[in-house]
Amino acid sequence: MSLDTLKDSLPDYAKDLKLNLSSLARETVLADQTKWGTFLAAAHATGEAETLKALAAEAEAKLSPEALTAAKAASAIMGMNNVYYRFLHLVKSADYKQLPAKLRMNALANPGVDKADFELWSLAVSAINGCGMCIESHEAEVRKHGVTAEQVQAVVRIASVVNAVAAVKRAEAA
């Protein structure tokens, strides 16, 4: 499945999503690795099969094997971290914040790609998963790497559209 096939499979009421997929695929504020890694990490985070297959096919044609693996790793590690750190953020008891996480997070230290890209992919997944603590942390980290507000916005726009496309696909399959 391709990006065009995915767009064509969306119902008419999701026309804005089709248009947004097209414009985001042509986004120039992000390097191709950053952009297509974001598409893949976001699709991976949604877990919706058709969205993931289409965007993985697009990403495979545009990313190195290392970047493909790193984008998936960002989704995987954030799938864990977003739940854990959202809990810490929402729980009232300070006891938990004093305890070490005791969760392996090696991918964060050695992602196999440019650290800023991995952090942006982690930010996109954190936005989808709704972890405010992780969003703040990754946004601050990418800014230290010189990433602009426009680039952060582009990554979050991709995540939001991919998430919406996946939601429509799930709803239509129900």
From TrEMBL:
Residues forming the catalytic site: C131 (proton donor), C134 (cysteine sulfenic acid (-soh) intermediate)
Listed InterPro entries: AhpD, AhpD-like, AhpD_core, CMD-like
Family to which the UniProt record says this protein belongs: Belongs to the AhpD family.
Stretches assigned to the Carboxymuconolactone decarboxylase-like domain: 95-173
Superkingdom classification of source: Bacteria
Cysteine-cysteine disulfides: C131-C134
EC code(s) of this entry: 1.11.1.28
Function: Antioxidant protein with alkyl hydroperoxidase activity. Required for the reduction of the AhpC active site cysteine residues and for the regeneration of the AhpC enzyme activity.
Protein keywords: Antioxidant, Disulfide bond, Oxidoreductase, Peroxidase, Redox-active center
Full protein name: Alkyl hydroperoxide reductase AhpD
Family annotation (Gene3D superfamilies): AhpD-like (1.20.1290.10)
Reaction equations catalysed: N(6)-[(R)-dihydrolipoyl]-L-lysyl-[lipoyl-carrier protein] + a hydroperoxide = N(6)-[(R)-lipoyl]-L-lysyl-[lipoyl-carrier protein] + an alcohol + H2O
